[in-house]
Amino acid sequence: MEDLTVAMVQGNKSNPHSAYEYAIACKRPADKGRPNSEIARRLGLSGEWGKSLLLLMAAPKELRARVANDALTVTLAVQLLKEHGSEEAAEMIEEAASEKEAQGKPVKLTRKNIKPNNPFTKAVKRSAPAMYDALANVKKDPAFAKLNAATREKLLEIMVTLEKAKNDGAVDHSKQTTIFDAAAAHDPAKTAA
User: Fold this and answer.
1) Which burial class, exposed, middle or buried, applies to 78 when counting CB atoms under 10 A from its CB (0-12, 13-18, 19+)?
2) Cβ atoms within 10 A of the Cβ of 132, count?
């Protein structure tokens, strides 16, 4: 399989592969345990470019899909992965893509479209579950009633928002109908069986 992959890459000089296709070609021998230097040499790539392509293939699926669909260049994707790590880079790219989609624009991301995650926002996201638990405990505390009315309202408003988000994430599949339920509703004989 490795030899076929190398032959496919080297035999297609008149219609060169995309950078993403090269990344896939690098991943196949890497999965078999081949060293990066050997992969790059056999595919005719520089060692650094081979490492970058393998870094891309280790990134989250959503990020790789943006590269495969030409919404993001391999170079920019690799730069973001090196600067921010896989998860954060993927979040930044998805946020930028969502903004473009919301504006009805084609998704072609550049460095200026991608905003780095604010360290404060990142810390808040990570600590949100603990803050939710703490807020629930404050709400249960008898001293909660003695707080200023405006402060209580603000805390309750935050709690309602968080509870709604928590409940929206939990879908009760027992109340969902299936294609079998719909067929049974139209055919009383099937309901009896």
Assistant:
1) buried
2) 16
Structural domains in the chain, CATH included, are 2-113 (1.10.10.2830), 119-175 (no CATH)
Backbone φ, ψ for residue 104 (5° rounding): 75, 15
CB contact at 8 A, 147 and 125: no
Contacts of 26-32 with CB under 8 Å at 24 or more apart are: 26/50, 26/53, 26/54, 26/57, 27/53, 27/54, 27/57, 28/1, 28/2, 29/2, 29/5, 30/54, 30/57, 32/2
The pLDDT tens digits of the residues spanning 46-84 come to: 888 888 988 999 999 988 998 988 888 999 999 999 988
Q: Judge contact between 56 and 23, C-beta under 8 A.
A: yes
Dump pLDDT digits (tens) for 79-100.
999 988 888 888 888 888 888 8
d(CA 119, CA 8): 44
* In contact, 155 and 135? CB cutoff 8 Å: yes
The rounded distance, in Å, linking the Cα atoms of 22 and 68 is 11
Q: Is the model's pTM score more than 0.70? A: no
